[in-house]
């Protein structure tokens, strides 16, 4: 297949980024790249509880990817390339509009029934914060409509306020076809998310069950907890960072880590929920993934037609750390304006997430969390996300 050849070519250029300034110019020995996983065996809802050989193969690949990197490429997901291209083109067209037009869907007009600041809507450059520092990107966030959240009556018992997540999604008038295309995209990508968490359930069951555990993992556990996924879709625009530092070279290998005040397109973070399905334009070197060694950053350059997938905090909690929500960041010093559209396939807002008993045993560690709802975790994050 000609496409395989293309993938191999791309991955050979997935070289580690050096952190130590003194090593600048040297090349590290090649570090394993992110794996490529074909999800097609899990796109069909199972009719019985046994896995096919191709499902078992995919499940093993997922277990290995989630154990080592927490990141992988996903192919054969069923969304046509033309649709992916259209989503990115519309994002680019939106961000090219004058600021005053983009502010027509500002998040400052979106919060809850009373209006005011919310998490839904447009966020201008410098408004997003990661790790206490401003990010150099602009974005629009859409969430599952709040009216769909099943058991929200538990809210506001003096402990939390869901206000920032209430309100309705804000859609731009221009480009005029953005809303229709994106709403259709949400439907399609939700199915991909479901296939991925079904495969992850299988992966966990196959790797954990039958290994001196009293309890087994229910391979459908993630599907059940995401059947009303409180998803988030972000449309992000990244201007090229100014290369103000002398250490910065033309490549992504600049010793940016030694410059504690270096500008970030998006500072290092983990994602919050289950599974992130990232669609990004072809700009190389921008998205960087922290290697297991804790110091080396790997480029997660896009592969045409594939999603970059990573697991979030709730997966780490469920598996009691067997799988890690890996840190990543964006430093865009490449050419042009970069756009990406991550889709966060998350648990239901009120799903209680605690370490699975079988995973606790398998990990040989105490439970890493006592359990709480995904909504609580999300609110704790969202409230610190804006300047
Ligand atoms: N749902 C997710 N992952 N949204 C994007 C998170 C980007 C990092 C965020 N500013 C933070 O500080 O966590
Ligand atoms: O734009 C990207 O490549 C990744 C963005 C990201 O990590 C996020 O929004 O959580
Ligand atoms: Fe992220």
Summarize the structure.
By secondary structure, the protein is an alpha+beta fold. The chain contains 9 helices and 17 strands. The protein is globular and about 60 Å long.
Give short descriptive properties of this protein.
IPNS-like_sf; 8-stranded mixed beta sheet; 387 residues; metal-binding; binds 2-oxoglutaric acid; 5-stranded antiparallel beta sheet; alpha+beta; oxidoreductase; binds L-homoarginine
How are the secondary structure elements laid out?
Layout: H1 2-12, E1 16-17, E2 36-38, H2 53-68, E3 71-75, H3 81-95, H4 99-102, E4 121-123, E5 129-130, E6 133-134, E7 138-143, H5 178-208, H6 221-225, E8 232-238, E9 266-269, E10 275-280, E11 287-290, E12 297-299, E13 307-311, H7 313-318, E14 328-330, E15 338-345, E16 352-353, H8 357-363, E17 372-373, H9 374-382
Parallel strand pairs: 2-3
Antiparallel strand pairs: 1-12, 3-13, 4-7, 5-6, 7-8, 8-15, 9-14, 10-13, 10-15, 11-12, 11-14, 16-17
The protein binds L-homoarginine, 2-oxoglutaric acid (AKG) and fe (ii) ion.
Residues 234, 236, 266, 271, 278, 280, 287, 328, 330, 340, 342 line the site of 2-oxoglutaric acid (AKG).
């Amino acid at each position: 297949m000609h496409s395989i050849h293309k993938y191999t070519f791309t991955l050979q250029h997935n070289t580690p980024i050096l952190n130590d300034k003194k090593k600048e110019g040297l090349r590290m020995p090649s570090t394993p790249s992110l794996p490529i996983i074909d999800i097609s065996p899990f796109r069909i809802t199972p009719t019985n509880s046994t896995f096919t050989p191709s499902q078992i193969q995919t499940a093993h690949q997922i277990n290995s990817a989630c154990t080592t990197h927490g990141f992988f490429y996903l192919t054969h997901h069923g969304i046509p390339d033309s649709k992916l291209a259209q989503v990115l083109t519309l994002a680019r067209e939106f961000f090219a509009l004058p600021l005053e037009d983009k502010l027509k869907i500002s998040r400052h007009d979106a919060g809850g029934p009373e209006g005011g600041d919310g998490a839904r809507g447009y966020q201008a450059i410098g408004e997003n914060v990661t790790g206490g520092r401003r990010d150099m990107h602009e974005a629009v966030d859409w969430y599952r409509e709040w009216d769909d959240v099943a058991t929200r009556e538990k809210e506001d018992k003096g402990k939390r306020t869901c206000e920032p997540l209430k309100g309705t999604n804000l859609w731009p008038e221009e480009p005029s076809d953005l809303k229709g295309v994106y709403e259709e995209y949400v439907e399609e990508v939700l199915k991909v998310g479901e296939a991925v968490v079904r495969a992850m359930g299988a992966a966990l069951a196959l790797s954990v069950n039958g290994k001196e555990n009293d309890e087994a993992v229910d391979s459908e556990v993630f599907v059940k907890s995401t059947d009303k996924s409180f998803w988030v879709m972000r449309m992000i625009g990244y201007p090229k960072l100014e290369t103000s530092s002398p250490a910065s070279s033309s490549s992504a290998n600049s010793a940016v880590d030694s410059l504690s005040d270096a500008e970030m397109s998006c500072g290092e973070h983990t994602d919050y929920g289950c599974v992130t399905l990232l669609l990004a334009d072809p700009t190389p070197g921008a998205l960087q993934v922290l290697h297991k060694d804790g110091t080396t950053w790997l480029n997660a350059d896009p592969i045409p037609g594939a999603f970059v997938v990573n697991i979030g905090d709730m997966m780490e909690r469920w598996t009691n750390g067997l799988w890690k929500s890996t840190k990543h960041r964006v430093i865009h010093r490449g050419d042009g304006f970069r756009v990406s559209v991550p889709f966060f396939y998350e648990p239901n807002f009120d799903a209680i997430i605690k370490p699975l008993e079988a995973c606790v045993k398998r990990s040989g560690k105490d439970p890493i969390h006592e359990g709480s709802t995904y909504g609580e975790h999300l609110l704790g994050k969202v409230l610190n996300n804006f300047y």
